[in-house]
Amino acid sequence: MAGLVLGLSGCATTTGSSALSGSSGTTAATTTTPSVVNATVEAALPLVRTGAAVATGAVLDFAVNQASTRTRLANEMYSAANAVYSLSGGTFPTPAQFQSSIMAFGGTQTDASYAAFSTAIAGLYAGYYPKLVAGANTKTAIDLLNAIAGGIEDATQAYVTTPVAGGSVAAATAQF
Predict the structure, then answer these.
(1) Across-strand partners of 29?
(2) Is residue 119 a contact partner of residue 99, using CB atoms and an 8 Å limit?
C-alpha cells in the first residue's frame, strides 16, 4: 500500500528543470522559483487527493475484515481528516509533526490498520514537504492539506456513521 501511495506522489519528488551537461552525464539542476514550486504542487493536487483516498480505502477495504471494525476505523480516519484541516501554527508541519497529528486524533492508536493508514498518509505528505519548504506559499500549503483531508473523507464517507455532506473544507481551513 505504501508503494502505491509513493507511486502516486512520484511527481512530488521532481524538482525544477535540469539539463545534461556535456558528455560527462552529470546533471546540473537549475534554481526552482517559488512560483514553479507552487505551480508544481497545485498541478499535483488531484493526484494527492486520489492518493489519500486510495491509501485510506485500501486500509478500509482490504486490511479490515469486520464491518464494526471498519466503521470504527473509518470514524477515526474521518476525525483525522478534520485534524489535517485544522493544522495551524504559523509554519508548515514537518512530516513527523503531520503524522503525529494524525496519530493523536486516532481513537485507537495501537490498531495496526490505523497505523498503516497514518504511515501512508504521512508518506504522501512527506513527498511534498520538500516543495513546501522550498518556497510554496501559504495558499499552496493549505491546498495540499485540504487535498489530503479531502481524499481521506472521500474514502471514509461510505463507512462513517455521520458523514458531513460536502466535506469539511468550508467548515475548517488550515491556517499558517
Answers:
(1) 18
(2) yes
